[in-house]
């Protein structure tokens, strides 16, 4: 019986010693780990150049330089994300830790679908932005939209899409669409036709004109220079000069 008790005490003592040793090693490793985190060398933020133009990569690099070198574990990823997202041309941002490269920033640029004024572009979501390269402004391959306020951009984009839907049977589409401060719409189609319409019953007037040009005025379309829809009962037509 005494032999069994001595054996049990010996096992308990050994287990206790191992537990204390384990705790000690855990603390030592933790201390060295914390020291390694705090004293690990700071490195520059790495920019993922995938799908970026040279101007976009340079724009990102400038922000990264302004942030400065960062430590792998202590880098404030949300703060870096916020700084990068402030760039107007940036759509989506990803900031991650990579064991081999360090802190890596990847972005998806906004894709322009229209010019908005002469100083901005517009993406498919109606978001106005400034491109990384100013030479991208006034792209001749994109439609031109104009408004007195950037907040009108989405409204103008939707109106252009609606107009193109109504006038598509005629084989023409809006190329310039302007919304003035007085909410007057100025529309130029790719065949040269110009239309002006006020803010009263705008959609109904445009839809009615599209139907007339498809039917009773179909033969006259090539002769029409512009149509003024700012009338309650009718509209005015200006004809092209005959040669």
From TrEMBL:
Pfam families: FtsQ_DivIB_C. It is found in: Membrane. It comes from Moraxella oculi. Signal peptide: none annotated. This is Cell division protein FtsQ/DivIB. Keywords: Cell cycle, Cell division, Cell inner membrane, Cell membrane, Membrane, Transmembrane, Transmembrane helix. InterPro entries: Cell_div_FtsQ/DivIB_C (IPR005548), FtsQ (IPR026579), FtsQ_C_sf (IPR045335), POTRA (IPR034746). It comes from the Bacteria.
């Amino acid at each position: 019986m005494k032999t069994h008790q001595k054996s049990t005490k010996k096992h308990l003592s050994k287990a206790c010693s191992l537990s204390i040793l384990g705790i000690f090693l855990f603390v030592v490793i933790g201390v060295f780990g914390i020291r390694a985190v705090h004293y690990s060398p700071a490195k520059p933020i790495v920019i993922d150049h995938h799908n970026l133009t040279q101007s976009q990569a340079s724009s990102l690099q400038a922000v990264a330089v302004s942030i400065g070198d960062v430590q792998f574990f202590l880098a404030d990823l949300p703060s870096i994300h916020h700084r990068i997202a402030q760039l107007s041309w940036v759509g989506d941002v990803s900031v991650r830790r990579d064991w081999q490269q360090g802190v890596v920033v990847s972005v998806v640029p906004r894709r322009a679908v229209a010019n908005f004024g002469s100083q901005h572009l517009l993406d498919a979501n109606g978001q106005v932005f400034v491109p990384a390269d100013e030479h991208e402004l006034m792209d001749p391959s994109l439609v031109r939209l104009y408004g007195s306020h950037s907040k009108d951009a989405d409204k103008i984009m939707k109106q252009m899409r609606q107009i193109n839907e109504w006038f598509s049977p005629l084989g023409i589409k809006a190329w310039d669409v302007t919304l003035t401060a007085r909410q007057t719409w100025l529309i130029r189609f790719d065949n040269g036709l110009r239309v002006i319409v006020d803010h009263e019953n705008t959609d109904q007037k445009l839809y009615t004109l599209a139907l007339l040009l498809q039917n009773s005025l179909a033969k006259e379309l090539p002769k029409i220079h512009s149509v003024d829809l700012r009338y309650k009962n009718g509209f005015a037509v200006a004809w092209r000069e005959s040669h």
